[in-house]
Amino acid sequence: MTSVSGLVAAVIDELDAAAVALFPAWLPGAEGIEGPGGAHLPAVRALALRRAAASEHYGPFLAELAERALAGGPSGLRPEVRAAGLARALADSFGRSRTALLVRVPDGLTAAGQEVLVAACEWLAHRGGRWGGVAGGRAAGRRRSAGDGQAAPSRSHRPRRPRAAAGVVPGAGRTAASRQSR
Q1: How far apart are the first and last CA of the chain?
Q2: Looking at the structure, do residues 10 and 83 belong to the same domain, yes or no?
Q3: Are 139 and 105 in contact (CB under 8 A)?
Q4: Are residues 82 and 138 both part of a single domain?
Q5: For residue 93, how many other CB atoms are within 10 A of its CB?
Q6: How far is CA 93 from CA 117, 127, 134, in A?
Q7: Is residue 8 part of a domain?
């Protein structure tokens, strides 16, 4: 790929195909619904909207993804919406809260190609909120985004502060459980 937008679009399309193939793992209650016939499309749409209302999912994205899992077709949503929604759907498919995207740097990638690759990973991390990672090659040693607003450390950098441990959010003074009970 020679452009960041082209590479991002290709990655999102691959992730979309993976999410569609994993249907209904990311949509509880849709087990046994196959194909677009009968009431299947309205049924998965309703399940998706119900799931979104009770979670971090964006309803229009999840409903569209569920319908496309049955009927096919392209997405009409913006890449930013798709990146974030696919991260959640793929994580749900495996019973996880987050999804990591590990990108192997191809051998022999030019300096310009490395810049495109790193920029595309940064785009996915910032706009998708849950993606990021580069492994191998010279591009892997560059400082890049981790998807949570903090720069990911390269081998020569240390984290600025420790991650949350045992339910305690650094600097918050309360556990995650005590914030939820309020």
Answers
A1: 49
A2: yes
A3: yes
A4: no
A5: 18
A6: 26, 21, 23
A7: yes
- 103, β-bridge pairs: 134
Task: Check: pTM over 0.90? Answer yes or no.
Answer: no
Average pLDDT, the chain: 78
3-state secondary structure of 160: coil
What is residue 1's predicted lDDT score, i.e. its pLDDT? 66
CA distances to 113, 118, 121, 132 from 1, rounded to whole Å, are 7, 12, 13, 18
Range of the domain at 55: 4-93
Give the pair of three-digit tokens for residue 159: 């984290």
Would you report the helix, strand and coil content of the chain in percent, each value rounded to 5? Answer: 50, 5, 45
Does 42 map to a domain? yes
User: How many structural domains is the chain composed of?
Assistant: 2
Does residue 84 share a domain with residue 24?
yes
Per DSSP bridges, beta strands 144-145 and 151-152 are antiparallel
Residue 111 sits in the same domain as residue 132: yes
CA contacts within 13 A on the Cβ side of 2: 0
CA distance 26 to 66: 9
CB 11 within 8 A of CB 116: no
Domain final residue, candidates 93, 114, 130:
93
